[in-house]
Write a structure and sequence with these properties.
The chain contains four helices and nine strands. By secondary structure, it is an alpha+beta fold. The strands form three sheets. The protein has a five-stranded antiparallel beta sheet, covered by helices on one side.
Length: 260
């Protein structure tokens, strides 16, 4: 009798312990499942993005969405604040989460170029260092294009030129804003000269002087490319690098008369 009583008590205790362990396990599973469902904010592509798009321009292509944590891969971005200067390495499609690995330094896009936006074509200009920021332009930069011309002595009086240019032999005007540089090919630095300069201590070793002219390739429409070719053939071209905060205006053509 006593043994049966003890056996019943032991079975009851084991049942209670088993029930407690089961409840603890279930609660733990619920907690683990809930942890995976915790929503986190991520950037999701809402429109197709071409490769080579600057991170600063991605705001119009992506939106913030709350997704379950378990559905968000490592490296997914929730903001673009710390991605300045980077570009998309590949085309991005609607619905995909924006991964940090999709954004790279423009120099990493082999072979030192950025893709040409749809509808544009490339044209190459041969320019001396002072016309391209001392040779510091890189693929992915955005520039403003200026052109200068010297008037012919026999230009007819009724030539279709701006009124402010009439009567002056030289003029400079702003041709385009927002011109994308897709490639820059320049000569390698003169290592012998750089070494001798460093040994003499006559200049900052971190600054290398440009070595000759460079081929700068830009992307424009066919009509704009024709104007660039004309400027290079019959005048001179100067490029100014734009920043995210560069002001853009429509200045008149500059002549000696309008300079002062």
């Amino acid at each position: 009798m006593k043994s049966r009583l003890l056996g019943g008590i032991a079975a009851l205790v084991l049942a209670v312990i088993g029930t407690v362990l089961l409840v603890v396990y279930v609660q733990g599973a619920d907690a683990r499942a809930a942890q995976g469902l915790d929503p986190v904010n991520v950037l999701v592509v809402k429109e197709s993005v071409p490769a080579g798009t600057k991170a600063g321009d991605l705001g119009k292509y992506v939106q913030v969405e709350a997704l379950p944590q378990s559905a968000v891969p490592e490296g997914t971005l929730d903001k673009l604040d710390d991605q300045a200067g980077r570009v998309t390495a590949v085309d991005l499609q609607p619905g995909e989460q924006l991964l940090a690995s999709r954004l790279v330094d423009p120099k990493e896009l082999a072979p030192g170029t950025v893709p040409v936006p749809d509808g544009l074509e490339e044209v190459t200009l041969l320019l001396s260092p002072e016309r391209i920021l001392g040779g510091r332009l890189e693929a992915g930069d955005t520039v403003t294009v200026y052109t200068s011309f010297k008037a012919e002595d026999n230009m007819p009086a009724d030539a279709p030129v701006p009124a402010e240019v009439k009567g002056w032999k030289q003029s400079t005007g702003l041709l385009f804003h927002d011109v994308l540089v897709t490639a820059v090919q320049k000569a390698a630095p003169d290592t012998k000269k750089s070494a001798s300069t460093q040994e003499s201590g006559s200049a900052d070793s971190s600054v290398e002087m440009p070595n000759g002219s460079a081929y700068v390739t830009v992307a424009r429409t066919d009509a704009d490319a024709a104007k660039l070719v004309f400027g290079a053939e019959f005048g001179t071209i100067w490029l100014a690098k734009q920043t995210d905060t560069s002001a853009k205006s429509d200045p008149p053509v500059t002549t000696f008369g309008g300079l002062y």
